[in-house]
Write a structure and sequence with these properties.
0% strand; globular; single chain; mainly alpha
Length: 70
């Protein structure tokens, strides 16, 4: 697990979530990711699966390449 990458990814999610005006509960519901899992992702505590990355990109209406541009 690459902690720096996870930290950068966590910051990207937090930034986008705030830009879109989503709470963690909102994003959890939209992305179909458990609220506790989302919290762990945002604190870089857990690695993330590609399917969750895809669900988050869709929640922000971004392509994977746009979403991962950080």
């Amino acid at each position: 697990m690459n902690k720096q990458l996870l930290s950068n990814f966590a910051n990207r999610i937090k930034y986008l979530r705030k830009q879109y005006g989503y709470t963690q509960d909102d994003l959890s519901e939209i992305s179909n990711i458990a609220r506790s899992t989302l919290g762990n992702i945002e604190t870089a505590s857990n690695d993330i699966t590609l399917s969750k990355v895809y669900n988050l990109a869709k929640a922000f209406n971004l392509s994977l390449s746009e979403f991962l541009n950080f």
